[in-house]
Amino acid sequence: MSDALLELHGVHTHIGAYHILHGVDLAVPEGEVTMLLGRNGAGKTTTLRTIMGLWRASRGEVRFRGEAMTALGTPDIAQRGIAYVPESMGIFSDLTVKENLLLAARAAQHADQLDAARLDWIFGLFPALQTFWLSPAGKLSGGQKQMLAIARAVVEPRALLLVDEPSKGLAPAIIGNLVRAFSELKAQRTTILLVEQNFMMAKALGDRVAVMDDGRVVHAGAMADLAADEAMQQRLLGLSLGAHQ
Amino acid sequence: MTVSAMAPPGSMPQARLDTRPLALLAALALTALPLIGSPSTWATLTVAGLAMGLIIFVIASGLTLVFGLMDVLNFGHGVFIAAGAFVATSVLGGMSAWTLSPSLAANLIAIFAAMVAAMSAAAALGYAFERIIVRPVYGQHLKQILITMGGMIVGEELIKVIWGPQQIPLALPEGLRGAFVFGDVAIEKYRVLCVVIGLAVFAALLWTLNRTKVGLLVRAGVQDREMVEALGYRIRRLFVGVFVAGSALAGLGGVLWGLYQQIVVPQIGAQVNVLIFIVIIIGGLGSTLGCFVGALAVGLLANYAGFLAPKVALVSNIALMVAVLLWRPQGLYPVTNR
Question: What is the ipTM of this complex?
């Protein structure tokens, strides 16, 4: 685990009276895409929110580049280079696309100070964002909002992206766009921890996989191994790959 | 092509100002004209209503952002108004040579000094209020209402300790007494000053909110606090800044309101507390533009109703709030995600 960018050791999280995470152990290697899979209610979203400090770990440890982060506040965690795309996308609907991106670029005070080359790269990935640059984000379609949410996470270089179910509720053609965008990020060796229910997307993108059940990681290994083993998929996820092809 | 110069094609949706609430103001004014009958009286009442509305806006603008940003119901906002008004009595009392001077410049310098002192005192009080009273009750609305009202009562008692329980006259400086007369239209000089200051505050707020990164953070924080933190910004620090700035504006409003009433009592803040809550509810909680339009509507209606049917004036603002909420349940300019 020593080469892992992010490590979770025995993390427990309570939300009010509910005990959601029951000792999560997870390693996210640098430069790879780690898929976090599991049934609804397995604890995937809670794991991401605990990493971001949005919910506090009641026990256990979260380490990033070897530094303990469990006691840090959310802004401090983000400032260490971790970007978070929540399941709800977290778009500021009343702000324009430009303002949403400017907000995510902590170093920039004005849109002129956004990295133009990086912005061109983002527009190459998501042309709609250039088209709707001055439009209120609330007017975008669901897929375009997801593109904006991801663009916001990469508008400045980040060490780690935490992305929660980006394909949820999107049309297959839009999912295809997202897969292409994540593939490009992967080609640039961006470290990503991606929660996903769409197994085909997970198979296409993942280097590593961790499967959660009942607030624990019950399997961790290479994504290719899980993709090739239908019996394991059936046992861990209750699905067969054939049904998804 | 630079980033800021990019523009979407004309057919794409862009951020457009919703002008219907502004049309409401025009409709209110035009409806009052035939009812009042005399154009000169109507003009006088309209300027008086705008002046009153702008004072209320100055007072309420901070409160709406405080609620929008941190979901804090601060029923103690009135204490900053009272503090500002009482500080003004001391400053203007100490500068009586300036206020009694026939020179308008000397008068304005005295008022400016009173405003700076009042805003500073209210800002300091606001900082202490947030640290001691508001911070322990984040996220607990009932406790916020109780403890902030308690804070206001304590504040009023402290004012009585410092300035005494009696009412203190706050006379207008010499140069601001009387009215400008245009034909049959008489416009009080002081109300013109209120309009100028109110519009300057509105312009400064709009500029800050729309043209600066801090303003962008405030607007984003009003919509989704958690996401602003996840982007790496400390929203608590931002909130303290907004709370202090809002308190300072309430102090400024206290000076304007005190001079408007020409008498200051320790309960001056409590007296307008209900009015400012009506304004921020009408405008849409967290919306600066909504607060502006709501305040003007309240000011205009109060003056028209006071002239046409003084007994109705007492309930006119409540009636306006009910009518607006029936039309737009989230207020004139609802803030998304709330």
Answer: 0.92
